[in-house]
Design goal:
Blueprint: E1 3-9, H1 16-26, E2 30-35, H2 44-50, E3 54-58, H3 64-78, E4 82-85, H4 97-107, E5 113-119, H5 128-145, E6 157-160, H6 161-165, H7 176-186, E7 190-196, H8 212-231, H9 255-264, H10 269-284, H11 291-302, H12 306-312, H13 320-334, H14 343-348, H15 350-386
Parallel strand pairs: 1-2, 1-4, 2-3, 5-7
Antiparallel strand pairs: 4-6, 5-6
């Protein structure tokens, strides 16, 4: 297989040459994509050319994602199987590149896997924001794909060129790396993880182009869009040949095995907490006569634990939860609570109470989801610890 290292750069004047040259010592084919930099070393292009490093330049800054898209198109036309992306700020060590190559040659010779470099955060100067961001991102990718990746925000990764080139990728900034990872997993690419080192400069020396408000907003909107797409009833385009999986339906002939399968399905504390939160949220909404159908559908699409979700939704059955929602909704609309509410009056005046129920549920449902998720996580984590 043919591998190429890709280094997107934007104003990393103090580190880019060292990273590029060290990468060239490790791998013959190296591509640097200058994303409209205004601060680069003197004779930068000449130095790269003299050392056999390809350079592509964007006239204006377009974002890291745009630089990787440019590199992807170049790699496709040049016939490379994998492009190994690493940052130009010195955070990643080019000496880890052989780890990617060895793993991919052994486990993904058909170029059907995306390999992620799992950064070692047991090192100096790791920002607290990076630790939180990684955990937060890992949670959402797990929800969107059902795949547990330990470092979804790592920019040190190997992309299967032909497979990724088939994707419709819209993001051009830091959110590109989440979009391409999720859509690649949806398309059937396998996930491989490679332990890598990481280097963070002290706060005063660190050069980062991540914009906390703008980029976090982009990531939040992207995750919302990806979850909605995951819930859509149509499937995903296959990027690689798919292996036929044994369907759990065949277990209907063995009810006990079926029950064991359903009980163990995505039964980690995190996934059980998500199942509880999703169940509680939808159980509080005025989905009259449709709660079980909606919760089952969402659990199927997100690969959640259906046994827990369907069992927990019974806690929110009428009349208690609807009464609370209606009272809150009535207070929102009329600035006073409904004082003459009984099961009989609510049933006869249901058409008048639906708006109040809906408004109240928009407050009760998120609270119930958060509380249920926390309780289930704590209990599940405690039980796992005892084991």
């Amino acid at each position: 297989m043919r591998f190429v290292a890709v280094i997107p750069v934007f104003n990393n004047k103090g580190t880019i040459l060292e990273v590029a040259l060290e990468t060239r010592h490790v791998l013959d084919d190296v591509l640097v994509v200058d994303d409209g930099s205004t601060q680069l070393p003197e004779a930068f292009a000449e130095t790269l050319e003299r050392n056999g490093i390809k350079l592509i330049t964007h006239p204006l800054n377009q974002g890291k994602g745009a630089a990787l898209k440019t590199a992807l198109q170049y790699c496709l036309e040049a016939g490379f199987d994998y492009m190994i992306a690493l940052d130009g700020d010195g955070q990643h060590s080019p000496q880890d590149i052989p780890r990617f190559i060895a793993l991919l040659e052994k486990k993904a010779p058909l170029a059907d896997a995306i390999a992620i470099g799992i950064r070692d955060f047991d090192t100096m100067n790791v920002p607290g924001s990076s630790r939180f961001g990684r955990a937060f991102s890992n949670f959402w990718v797990r929800l969107e794909t059902g795949v547990n990746c330990k470092d979804t925000q790592s920019g040190f990764r190997a992309y299967p060129v032909k497979a990724i080139s088939q994707l419709r990728l819209r993001c051009t900034r830091y959110n590109f790396e989440i979009e391409v990872l999720v859509k690649a997993l949806w398309g059937g690419c396998r996930l491989l993880e490679v332990p890598v080192s990481v280097k963070y400069e002290p706060p005063g020396k660190r050069v980062s182009h991540f914009k906390p408000f703008a980029d976090n907003l982009r990531l939040s909107l992207l995750h919302a869009a990806l979850v909605c797409r995951r819930l859509a009833p149509w499937g995903f385009k296959h990027l690689t040949p798919q292996k036929k999986e044994e369907s759990p339906i065949s277990l209907w002939k063995h009810p006990i095995q079926l029950l064991k399968y359903l009980l163990k399905e995505n039964s980690s504390p995190e996934m059980l907490a998500i199942s509880a939160a999703v169940s509680s949220f939808f159980a509080c909404l005025p989905l009259i006569g449709c709660h079980i159908v909606v919760i089952t559908y969402v659990c199927l699409r997100l690969r959640l634990n259906k046994v827990l979700a369907l069992g927990l939704q019974n806690l929110y059955m009428p009349p208690f939860t609807p009464f609370i929602c209606i009272e809150i909704g009535h207070f929102i609309l009329h600035r006073q609570f409904l004082r003459t509410m009984t099961l009989q009056t609510v049933s006869t005046e249901l058409h008048l109470r639906l708006l109040e129920w809906l408004l109240g549920s928009l407050i009760v449902a998120p609270v119930a989801a958060i509380l249920s998720g926390i309780v289930v996580y704590v209990i599940s984590h405690a039980l796992n610890a005892k084991k």
